[in-house]
Amino acid sequence: MISEEKMIKMRDGVEIFTRIREIGAPAWIIVTHGVAEHSGRHRYMSDIFGHQFNILHYDLRGHGKSDGKRTYVEKFEDYFEDLREIIDYLSRNYKMKDYVLFGHSMGALISAGVVQSYLQKSIYPKMVFFSAPPVEVGGVQGIVAHFLAKSVFEKLAQIPYSIAVPKVIKFEHLSHDPMVGEDYANDPLNSLSIQSRLLFELVRASKEVFTRPLRLKCPAFCAVGGADQVVSPEAINRYFTHLEKGAHVKVIPSAYHELHNEIAKYRKHYIQFLKKSFYQCFNVLANAES
C-alpha cells in the first residue's frame, strides 16, 4: 500500500495538494470537495471504500493546502481543467484505467462539467456520484438566481474586483448535528467567507452545465437531503427527471446538505445508497447494508 501527500503542478503553475492512497486495487475514486472547505472533510470515503479502491482526495485551487487566493477563481473552467489534469496524472503515473468521479456540492458541479465537456471516451469514468449538486442554489437566493439569465452572472463575474462575502456558509444548514457547524468553524483549513467572483462564477457555471444534458456514458447516482437549504432538492429532481434521465436519484427526507455528516437516522440511508451504488457498479462482493 502507498499512502502519500503530494503537490501536483497544474498547467498555469498552481500547485494542487493531493492525498493519494493506493492499495493495488483495479479502480480509483477521485473525490472533489465543496466550496470553502477542503478534502480532509471527506476522509469518510477512505473509511468506507479504502479496502476496495485506490483513492485520491485533492484540495481545489484556493482551498485547503492548495495554492491560490482563498476561495477565489479567475474562471470556473479552471476547476474543470484541474480535475481533467488530475485524471491525466493518475493515468500516466499510476496506470489508472477504471475510476469513479465523486463530487460533493460544488465538487459535484465540477464533476458534472468535466464528464459533460472535458473527457474523451478513452479516459471516461466507469461511474459518477453526485452528492447534493448545485443545480440551483437553495432558499430565497435560489429563487432570485433562477429568474436571472446566465448573462447577468457572466457580467457580474467580470467586475474587475472581488470582495470577501462573509457568512455565506450557514452552519445550521449543514447538518442536524450542531457539532458539525462548530467543527467547521474551528477548522483552519475551511474558509468563513467566499470571494464574490467565485460566487458569481459558480452560479454562471451551474446555469451552463445544468441547463443541458450531461449525455452520460456511464452509470450515475445522485443523493440529496429532502430538507437541503444550500441547494434545491426540487431543482435536482427536475433536472434528473426531464433533462438528464440517466441518473439514479436518492432523496433522503428531512436531511440537510452534508449527508455524510448527518445524524445517524439520516446518514445511514445515505451510506447505504453510496455503498450500493459503488458495489453494484463494480461487482464488489461486500455487504452494502452494513
In total, the number of strands is: 10
The average pLDDT is 92
Output the number of helix runs.
9
How do the strands line up in the largest sheet? 1-2-4-3-5-6-9-10
- Taken together, the total number of domains comes to 1
Beta fraction: 15-25%
Alpha carbon gap, first and last residue: 25 Å
Shape category: globular
- Could you spell the SSE succession in H and E letters? EEEHEHEHEHHEHEHEHEH
What would you report as the Rg, rounded to the nearest angstrom?
18 Å
How would you sum up the major sheet? 8 strands, mixed
CATH homologous superfamily grouping: Alpha/Beta hydrolase fold, catalytic domain
Subunit organisation of the chains: single chain
Task: Describe this protein's structure.
There is one protein chain. This protein has 290 residues and is an alpha/beta fold. It is 36% helix and 20% strand. It contains nine helices and ten strands. It has helices at residues 44-49, 77-93, 106-117, 139-147, 150-157, 178-186, 196-209, 233-243, 264-282, and strands at 2-9, 15-22, 27-32, 54-58, 98-104, 127-131, 164-166, 193-195, 220-225, 247-252. The strands form two sheets. The chain has an eight-stranded mixed sheet with strand order 1-2-4-3-5-6-9-10, sandwiched between helices. A two-stranded antiparallel ribbon has the order 7-8. α3 packs across α7 (196-209). The longest helix is centred in the last third of the chain and has 19 residues, at 264-282.
